[in-house]
Amino acid sequence: MGYGLSLRVRVMALNPSDSFNLFVRYGSVIPHPMIVSQVWALLGFLKAQHFRANAAPYALVHIVLYAIHLLQEVFNVHQPDRSKNKSSKLE
């Protein structure tokens, strides 16, 4: 369901001309729907006993990294813009 939701939101929210441009921002009922749907999908995988036995640590690390990225998005944490401090080191 998570992967289907992610694809559905992407197709519905973006223009057909921008459907492959992942950098286009859009509004939705679900905050950050792609991150939320991917975490939901990974939690669904963890319900399968054979997946938990073989790959649970990888899925859990992935979920933690998604959570960190979500916090970056929510609190608008970005790398400082270095183009403002251009110095002529190359010259």
**How would a crystallographer describe the biggest sheet?**
none
In percent, how helical is the residue content? 55-70%
| Broad structural category | mainly alpha
The fraction of residues in strands falls at under 5%
Rounded to an integer, what's the Rg over CA atoms?
18 Å
Distance between the termini: 54 Å
List low-confidence stretches: 19-24
Into how many domains do the coordinates divide? 1
Average pLDDT: 75
Say how many strands there are: 0
Instruction: Please work out how many helical segments DSSP would assign.
Output: 3
Which of globular, elongated, flat, extended, rod-shaped describes the shape? Answer: flat
Task: Give the H and E element order.
Answer: HHH
Description of the structure:
This protein has helices at 2-13, 33-46, 49-74. The protein has one domain (2-74). The protein starts with a helix and ends in a 17-residue tail after the last helix. By secondary structure, the chain is mostly helical. Residues 19-24 have low confidence and may be disordered. It has three helices and no strands.
Can you give me a brief rundown of this structure?
With 91 residues, the chain is mainly alpha-helical. The chain has one domain (2-74).
Short key terms for the protein model shown above:
flat, 3 helices, 91 residues, mainly alpha
What is this structure's SSE topology?
Blueprint: H1 2-13, H2 33-46, H3 49-74
Helix pairs in contact: 1-2, 2-3
